[in-house]
Each structure stands twice: as structure tokens, then as C-alpha cells.
């Protein structure tokens, strides 16, 4: 009895924690994977998490290990806001130009930094610049990481306008993943319209399955 009650209480707490401030569409006809790379930071993470929460969105945050180590409270804030946390290397190098030992260091140190910060042990890895090769995939496998590239590039890193970022999200179909970043001001500004556009199409923000690499129900 006591155990059941505790589990129930834990479930209720989690449900309350992740209840979006704005109601999502009643029916999810499909799920998309929103991803935000290159954080966390004191400068950008709080505002991004607020915007996502206020608009009922959950996302995958591909953190750099060096920033997870520098801003552990922001890693915890991401997890507390219901986000999923992935590995985006430690220092964001062009990994395909590095040795297997260097790749190993980049991935393993990031796993440790995110876990030490309280973000759990990532199961998803996004290579910087989307650059990968067979050696890197071997290292990913060693750490149980599923490589996630993207279906749609929002171009937010390349100065895309708010309109362009919203339109890129409008191209997403069920299961697909979009590349965004935590630092562009236009990305932050686009969040409410991204949420409205997805809701209008019956799509919901999902988690990325480590098994399939596709967006699925949270
Ligand atoms: Zn990046």
C-alpha cells in the first residue's frame, strides 16, 4: 500500500511538473523532435526554457560538455523543465578530423559532465556540424549513444529570420527532427509561432527515441 501510494505520488508530481502552461492540441496526430544545440548557458537557457514551457513544448537539448561543466544548474533546469538532454561533444570540434582517442575523450567527458550536473546519462549524440564517420560511430556505440542528425535545418545558426525559422518548423512531418540552437535571438522569438503552427497541424513535440532515432510520444 505504502509503496503504491508513493509511486502514485511520484507520478502525480512528475505529471504536474511537466504540465504545460498552455494546453496542447487535444489530439496528437504525430510527433516532431525539436532540438536546441550548443548550450547550456546562463545567458540563453533560462529564457529558452521559459518560452518552451509557456508554449507547452518539450525539446531535446544537445549540450556541450564544457558548458554542462560550467553551468550545471542550467543542466538541472533543463531536466526540471521536462527537456531531454543529449551529448553534443565537449568542445564542439570537427570530430572527423580527430583521432579515435580524441573522439573518445570528447564523448566520454561530456557524458560525465552532464551526469555530474544532474542531467542523467545521455543516450543521444549529435555530432558537431553533423559531421560523422565510421570511427566516430564506433565511439558512439561504445557509450551507448544513438547518433541524431536532423531532417530539417532551421538555418538559425546562419542568420535565418523569425519567419524562416517558423517556416522551417512548418515543414516537419511525423517523426522528423529539426536543428535549432539555444543562442539565436530569432529562435527564441519564433517559439510561440512554432507552437501555434504545430498545434494547428495536430503535431506535438515529442522525445527522440534512442531505438529508432525518430520523434515519438514523450
Ligand atoms: Zn553545435
UniProtKB/TrEMBL annotation:
Keywords: Hydrolase, Metal-binding, Signal. Residues 1-25 form the signal peptide. The keyword Signal applies. Residues 30-206 form the NodB homology domain. One of its GO terms (molecular function) is metal ion binding. InterPro entries: Glyco_hydro/deAcase_b/a-brl, NODB_dom, Polysacc_deacetylase_ArnD. GO terms for cellular component: membrane. GO terms for biological process: carbohydrate metabolic process. It comes from the Bacteria. Pfam families: Polysacc_deac_1. Coiled coil: none annotated. This is Peptidoglycan/xylan/chitin deacetylase (PgdA/CDA1 family). It comes from Kutzneria buriramensis. The lineage of its organism: Bacteria, Bacillati, Actinomycetota, Actinomycetes, Pseudonocardiales.
Amino acid at each position: 500500500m505504502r509503496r503504491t501510494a508513493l509511486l502514485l505520488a511520484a507520478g502525480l508530481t512528475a505529471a504536474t511538473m511537466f504540465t504545460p502552461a498552455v494546453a496542447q492540441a487535444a489530439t496528437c496526430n504525430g510527433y516532431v523532435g525539436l532540438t536546441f544545440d550548443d548550450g547550456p548557458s546562463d545567458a540563453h537557457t533560462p529564457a529558452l526554457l521559459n518560452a518552451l514551457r509557456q508554449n507547452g513544448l518539450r525539446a531535446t537539448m544537445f549540450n556541450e560538455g564544457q558548458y554542462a561543466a560550467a553551468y550545471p544548474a542550467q543542466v538541472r533546469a533543463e531536466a526540471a523543465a521536462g527537456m531531454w538532454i543529449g551529448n553534443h561533444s565537449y568542445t564542439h570540434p570537427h570530430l572527423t578530423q580527430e583521432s579515435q582517442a580524441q573522439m573518445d575523450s570528447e564523448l566520454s567527458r561530456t557524458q560525465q559532465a552532464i551526469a555530474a550536473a544532474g542531467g542523467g546519462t545521455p543516450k543521444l549524440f549529435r555530432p558537431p556540424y553533423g559531421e560523422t564517420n565510421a570511427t566516430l560511430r564506433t565511439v558512439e556505440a561504445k557509450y551507448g549513444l544513438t547518433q541524431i542528425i536532423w531532417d530539417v535545418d532551421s538555418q538559425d545558426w546562419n542568420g535565418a529570420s523569425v519567419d524562416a525559422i517558423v517556416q522551417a518548423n512548418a515543414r516537419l512531418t511525423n517523426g522528423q527532427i529539426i536543428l535549432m540552437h539555444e543562442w539565436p535571438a530569432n529562435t527564441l522569438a519564433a517559439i510561440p509561432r512554432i507552437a501555434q503552427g504545430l498545434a494547428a497541424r495536430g503535431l506535438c513535440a515529442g522525445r527522440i527515441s534512442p531505438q529508432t532515432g525518430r520523434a515519438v510520444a514523450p
